[in-house]
């Protein structure tokens, strides 16, 4: 049964409060859930960095996302730019002399948007990761004209990072769909953290995702349907 007709969601930018907060796995899980609901979902990671894979997409993150969405879109659309050092696009530019191509990223996003009903765009690092001088992830989201989901973690310090991330989204007038907590390390009790984040930011916590060992379709679909408020996300 195709339930996609009832879904109003267009595209989402999955942003993080920091690096290594689990954006890729949250994006992958959302891609699986949407696909299982009958939605034609595409994925994108505008900028990726690190060691290149020998097979498939250069970026392991892009490989994970494409597998979750079961897409085989061209690499130059899904990941327009890849840097061979683990750094922000700005730092990679200065070190490798390769300038980040924002216009290419935006045109790739438009092309992908014509190929799929929904595009899940995974960010890089935190929301103020620099791409160019005075141009950050926030600027990119703003130019894409899509809302964001903020991925945060459960460890101590996350309240500070999450509040700052929300404040920057507000400054750039970026709509926030909600917050997802990645509960894969010791820290705050999730109930307390959910209460505090909602009270402090006024943004709904969509749910929390436990550490995932089984990355199969069935596992991701079950975990995300159980732990994420999909109705609120898809409004």
TrEMBL record:
Mg(2+) binds at residues 24, 61, 122. It catalyses: (7R,8S)-7,8-diammoniononanoate + CO2 + ATP = (4R,5S)-dethiobiotin + ADP + phosphate + 3 H(+). Pathway: Cofactor biosynthesis; biotin biosynthesis; biotin from 7,8-diaminononanoate: step 1/2. Homodimer. Its EC number is 6.3.3.3. It is found in: Cytoplasm. GO terms for cellular component: cytosol. This is ATP-dependent dethiobiotin synthetase BioD. Keywords: ATP-binding, Biotin biosynthesis, Cytoplasm, Ligase, Magnesium, Metal-binding, Nucleotide-binding. HAMAP family: BioD. Belongs to the dethiobiotin synthetase family. InterPro entries: DTB_synth_BioD, P-loop_NTPase. Its main location: cytoplasm. ATP binds at residues 20-25, 61, 122-125, 182-183, 210-212. The active site is at residue 45. It holds the Pfam family AAA_26. Its cofactor is Mg(2+). GO terms for biological process: biotin biosynthetic process. Catalyzes a mechanistically unusual reaction, the ATP-dependent insertion of CO2 between the N7 and N8 nitrogen atoms of 7,8-diaminopelargonic acid (DAPA, also called 7,8-diammoniononanoate) to form a ureido ring. It comes from Nitrosopumilus piranensis. The gene is bioD. Signal peptide: none annotated. GO terms for molecular function: ATP binding; dethiobiotin synthase activity; magnesium ion binding; protein homodimerization activity.
